[in-house]
Amino acid sequence: MLDCHLPHEATLKAEDNAICAQCHSLAGNPDFPSLRLAEYDDPAHHFHPEGSDGAQCVACHMIERDYMGIDGWRDHSFRVPRPDLAAETGAPDACTDCHTDRSPDWAAAEIAARFPGSDHRGPHYGQVLAAARRDAPGVAALAEDTGQPGIVRATALEAAQGYAAPDLADRLAPLLADPDPMVRAAAVVVQRALPGPARATRLAPLLADPMKSVRIAAARSMLDVESGALSPSQGAVLGQAMRDWQGSLGNKQDFPETHLITGGMALTLRNLPVAERAFGEVVRLDPQRVEAWVMLVRLAAARGGAGAAGEVLDRALARVPDDPQLQALARELGR
Asked: How far apart are CA 50 and CA 40, in angstroms?
């Protein structure tokens, strides 16, 4: 980050393509010896008139999208455009962002013709992740591929949750000892397919992992494990990991998502009063969070019957009147 931005001002160190040419140039930068020395800020590379919008490095390698409907932000992915993958994966296509009258196939053909020797061709991990969303569990092999970046492998493990089963948990168990903490933490979740005692045995070593994120992941996955499945020493380590988790939540009390997690934790532990308070805080912070309203209605029904549930539902419908989940609850309660 500090190579591009001034640390105390959050502004760029240079304007336009000069920011990228600090390193991506014939001179290069000794701090990044693997960069190919070449002239990038040149029509021979970007194929657009000098100074035009299309000639900007960010136009192709750091595309912009609107977030929250109004704020334009560049994604900082710094990727080589792959329009050949756009239709298959649903990924944004930098080329047709500007050439709106053209197709990704046209853009792919143009890039292939202009960069015939590029090694940015062929299979891509994005294809596997996109296929996983269509029920193609090739993500296990991607997670096991140590040639991929850790964040890619961790993403594959998150996708593998949809296919979690004991045999997949067994296959991916070696990743609990992976050198990359992102991979270790993501591998924990796949182990939820195991019954409590087996899961406790497998995850117990991670409760003492040097990385807090891994310890917290293990603690979360052992929340429903009966205390009798743990030895006294394991119980003590689990207690410390739980405190790490609770401490991390305590630093984010102004986010409704934090209270959703707290409510879910309380439900798992069958502590209904704490769950009710947590979900109540969610809707206080963000009255549009329907999932919290649904849980509050269910909790009111469990603790006070249909009348109490109806009162909570009326408050929810006053905030989110047209939500289908709340409408279904209203029908269920005969309101």
From this structure: 12
What gap in Å lies between CA 324 and CA 301, rounded to an integer?
Answer: 19
CB 214 within 8 A of CB 185: yes
pLDDT value of position 120: 85
Q: Which one-letter DSSP state was computed for residue 12? A: B
Average pLDDT across each block of 10 residues of the chain; the chain has 335 residues. List them in order: 83 88 91 91 91 90 80 83 86 87 91 88 88 83 94 94 91 97 96 89 91 91 77 79 81 90 88 94 95 94 90 93 89 82
The 3-state DSSP class for residue 230 equals: coil
Cα–Cα distance for residue pair 335/331, rounded to 1 Å: 6
CA 34/CA 122 separation, integer angstroms:
22
**pLDDT reported for residue 90:** 82
Model-level pTM? 0.70
Q: How far is CA 16 from the centre of its chain?
A: 30
Task: Give the three-state DSSP class for 25.
Answer: coil
Task: Report the pLDDT value the prediction gives residue 176, as an integer from 0 to 100.
Answer: 97
Q: Which of 236, 192, 187, 175 is closest to 213 using CA atoms?
A: 187
In sequence order, the 6+-apart residues with CB closer than 8 A to the CB of 42 are none
What local confidence, expressed as pLDDT, does residue 230 receive?
A: 73
Place of tokens 């909570």: 312
The phi, psi pair for 27, rounded to 5°, reads -80, -35
d(Cα 138, Cα 159) in Å, to the nearest integer? 10
Picking from 163, 211, 157, the residue whose alpha carbon sits closest to that of residue 189 is 157
Q: How far is CA 213 from the centre of its chain?
A: 14
User: Which tokens go with 219?
Assistant: 């603690």
Report the C-alpha gap between 309 and 298 in whole angstroms. Answer: 7
Q: Which residue has the tokens 């194929």?
A: 47
What per-residue confidence (pLDDT) applies to 48? 92
Quote the CA–CA distance of 121 and 21 in Å, as a whole number.
25
